[in-house]
Amino acid sequence: MTGIRDKYGLTLKQRKFAENLADGMTQSDAYKFAYDATDMQGDTIRNKASQLAQRGDIRAVVDALIGERMRLLETRGVSDRSKVVGLLRQFAEDTARPDHVRLRAVELWGKTCNAFVEVIEDRRDRPAAAVAVELERRLSALLSAAAPHVTVIDMLPERVNGADDDDDGSGDSDDAGSGDEEARDAHGLIAHAPVGG
Hints:
This protein is mainly α. It has helices spanning 12-22, 27-34, 42-53, 56-93, 99-112, 128-142, 157-161, 178-191. Helix 1 (12-22) packs antiparallel against helix 2 (27-34), helix 1 crosses helix 4 (56-93) and helix 2 (27-34) crosses helix 3 (42-53).
């Protein structure tokens, strides 16, 4: 019987060892349950199991078995989800059911289909600098390396409006729309900031 091999070229015991590994057993336990290891020392079992687990044909079978099980779980998950959605649809559309049951079915149906987005609003009073630091952290995570480097701190009103401190103090402006120009300058910080910061 030792000459029988599967399509991967494994003997029955090697195949059982691979199946045990795919089931999540340790290498030693997988070896004990696949081979007659009753008279073997623990170190010997560990060494033989380790050598067997490192073989390419064994690893290929373990990977194939795990992949097959993952596909089955995914298929079963999709099938179960379809059944749930179908039942919720039936409950929601069944006019013989009480309104509160139908409404609950619609709500659960919507949640199952991700029709609702939960928004959490933070209403804590925090200093502008703390908010700016948090925004800076979040924005830097979103911006790619090729995007212009602009800090939220640079866009704070006191920084943007601080650009007016360099004027001659006369208070008169040559531009009728100086407020609009300040807004364009603030936008200019974003649009014309140097790349790579």
